[in-house]
């Protein structure tokens, strides 16, 4: 069937984008390219159909009338990428759906991972959920063993999930090989009644996600069966879509699928109506009458799939995926193996990706339009900067985006009254040529671009700059400044995706495509150190061209839990069998789509990780060549491949740990069309070069480059023959793209590409003399980006190289860079509580070690009197020297929360510590690394031995994790140092130091302006507030503002004395709270640095709980008192009602090395729990979210039960706990945990007595509550009497035991008691005991019943699709 069709018809590939639809047709070796508007209702209903009509009219040499069904007999294949799914998600226009979930987890998607998307937004906006209603199923299973078990006990079970025997067994073997305990089976008829009710309400699509269904799918299958019987038209089951661990990601994915697939099916059936004869495999098989055409859609993973199998979950990156396939196939050479970075710049955004090692980079978790999806997708990262990004001058800085002018009204030059954008700056500078642009603008859609409109908008910006700064800049400078800043904004994520995975950007080529790529390519490449740019001749329609070259793909995956043992063949054989079974299923699916066995190839993967970590790596089976080179010819040596990859990506390996396999994956590939062209490298070898002929010049123009306007020749690409060399400056253009060749670059025309080579430029771009220099706002904006990018990349390095859950998963760390005096220059916004406090710490250490530090030294400290916050937060500081090595230029520092550093309880967060030593190791100032040598013995001394010398205290309970995390912190600091050294090499030491100061002055100016505004708003009244800790200690504040100077005094006089407990807060914490609250109230992005505190004088009464003595306990100060200080500041400024005001710190575990006792191997676990946020003048509070001083994530429910001996009974919103008001406060959460082994459990919390306040007439929120549900022996007066007459005790006891058995076992003699633990407590809990933590809500704003005044403006980033680094970057992009 395959071959007879191949030479028969027209091949068509289409990319339906947001603005344009690109079509590429091929027939008998001839290509045709058509570009049309995606939406043009006046002329046609469906752009892809219209494109196909035009292509067929061209090849058949006759005009086919619009509306006439197209004959598929003349078509070989149609391949398509579409944004239908993405648009339905962005606009929230999918199907109405219901989510079916295990009882206790109905709010799992509302809470998500509990972090807030933007840490400085008081009006917290979480993405809305996709479902309309939730059904809870009374069923429950859990995993029998736990990963943190020091004994490594494994339960063996013979009964397998999915078999008939499994229906009655209590213990079964899950698909992943883990033992699963069935706690409650679902009742079929109860499910039926609940689903029938949903069906009767009009819902036809459901998403089912039950706890641990990735390994035990039986209960989900039952729900699916009942739903089919009732008649639901679409049923998404999580174990069929993506059998991977993580309840929240799986539930979001399954909801996205149920939400989007019906929309896609509707679109496809409308599309199919435009043809005579069927489409897709089925259509080809039904060859009666008209012959069908193959029809395939591009999936997010870069593979095509038959039209009938295309689903919503796999469609989200359908369009951009085509572009990646396009540049990967046309720009990568299998022989030279030079990796390629793809740069696809469109109107509203830019997609960045990488292709190297001859295979695509996939990621398994991405966020699109606020929905986190678990499914294999190409690792494409989207940046909110494109041709339509709007230009602003804000707070003395040049700002580009993230707001976009989109297609309507579009840039100013589109003649629709739009704002100044990147496109306008390009047009004004002569880098965009109106005569090559389609004439589709103006009233009658027949005019070209309007350069005058662009000039007017740029003039307005120049006037604003002069008014605000007094600096006169000509228009060219202004426009070029914005382009420079836009390029910097785009290179930041490119650096992240390449360097975060251990790749060096300068060793890549840049493949640029998309409408606007050619204008920015050279600048982007220069910034990344890339020497060569490739621009394909179809670069403006490369996504569509990529569809034509792509392969059909069938993905299969199954969970696993084996531990790799090289000497145990049974494990490896088991994996091989699983792999073969998946390959057979995949082979069959591809045969059904018309592929012969010789056209099918497989990529085989194992998803692997070290035990005790959650960072999995998807490892592909080594090729024969790789196996020969690295693994002694063993192609199945996955373990060595994993270790090698781990070292490359993370910079370290954990030799002593087991390697665990989480998933087995197969990617079946049906090879369809081959790319016949020669590669770029082959063409470069044989090409005959010749200089461009002057006769070919189309025209000349004055184009602006770095040193001013230059006469620049313009060439039409079609007029240039192969081998032509064009030296810059020059412009190459055709109807779809413009390529800017700068003065220091040269273009060469090949058959398939234009290659642009960039000359080495001299470094030190901005060397100024010693005279007075003034601040250049463009340079200031660029340095703002660069400093921030350094802090972010330090954060990535730390997250990547760390081992503990705290750092890697919960992201409980911060990284920053400081000037030579210890002033904060840039702090990636990880955790607000670390913001101002780290500089106190760096300053103090700089004073102590003045003149004694050498290159390669690293200092360690965590003591509260030395700028620390609480002991688990360990800070490492590294100096950077000038070239001579005799002067410190700046410091890099990282602070991470260590899971345990000793003390009286596991997790080092004791609820009733009274003295500092009870909280673990306290380090005032130590040199951890001397000239590059890490002092491991000293760490063992400080962390393990010293704390255990105090009464009742243990040393650290996880020394190996401490070591790994300290090393990770060292490598993060080294990363920061090397990046600043690069910056100095580029701009010179003086310039970098000058802008380190300038950026602090800029922030200082913003805070002064804020203080003046506040003074005006309160008409000069002093601002004051008081609130109380649960023990009654007052925290009092009076703020006095001097409007002339723009300065303020924060005076905490009246605050209570130091406490004989652990809520004392070191002084550094008050500074953090002030810097955080000021940044929240300046509701715009400003650099966060020392400058913010310059206009502020802080007065803290000595000997108060905000200035405790050296040995006072402080563990609660960081996580509890910091929140109260924040509430008090916001209350004084009347900014918003109180949020939950607590972190709800829960720790549990066992083991330790207490003095005088035998050392017990154990574990410690720590988490903080979300609550409600406070309402404000224009917003409602948010439910179940982390507030103010913290933003750490919660461990996913399934991973929580896999790692620890616990059963999570419930994690839901605590309805009604938020304060009522005109705008209601957010609700807290309920977290109900049952322990399956005896453990020591501790809770450290606040707001259990004093309620979070409402403001402006709003009501207070509910307090929190911590409950211990325990089984206690029933007290009977007979027992008491018998104890008194204890003579007959033995005989009586025997009779008692007998009686108990008769009554029905031991439980009869016990009863369940609910005990209030108070705010701070620790208890030895038995197996079966539970702790229920009910967290506080947020206060309400305004009187109930008043009309609401909500600000409905949408967040410009709210509808964003991002890549795999997005979760980290969306926070980083704000600062």
From TrEMBL:
Coiled coil location: 565-592
GO molecular function: 5-oxoprolinase (ATP-hydrolyzing) activity
Residues spanning the signal sequence: none
TM regions (residue ranges): none
GO cellular component, one term: cytosol
Pfam families membership: Hydant_A_C (PF19278), Hydant_A_N (PF05378), Hydantoinase_A (PF01968), Hydantoinase_B (PF02538)
Keyword Coiled coil appears in the UniProt entry: yes
Domain Hydantoinase B/oxoprolinase intervals: 776-1343
Domain Hydantoinase/oxoprolinase N-terminal: residue ranges: 11-231
Biased composition (Basic and acidic residues): 1296-1307, 1344-1355
Residue segments, region Disordered: 1283-1307, 1337-1375
Keyword annotations from UniProtKB, A to Z: Coiled coil
Keyword Coiled coil applies: yes
Acetophenone carboxylase-like C-terminal domain span: 568-760
Hydantoinase A/oxoprolinase domain mapped to chain residues: 250-555
Protein family membership: Belongs to the oxoprolinase family.
UniProt-recorded name of the protein: 5-oxoprolinase
Species classification: Eukaryota, Fungi, Dikarya, Ascomycota, Pezizomycotina
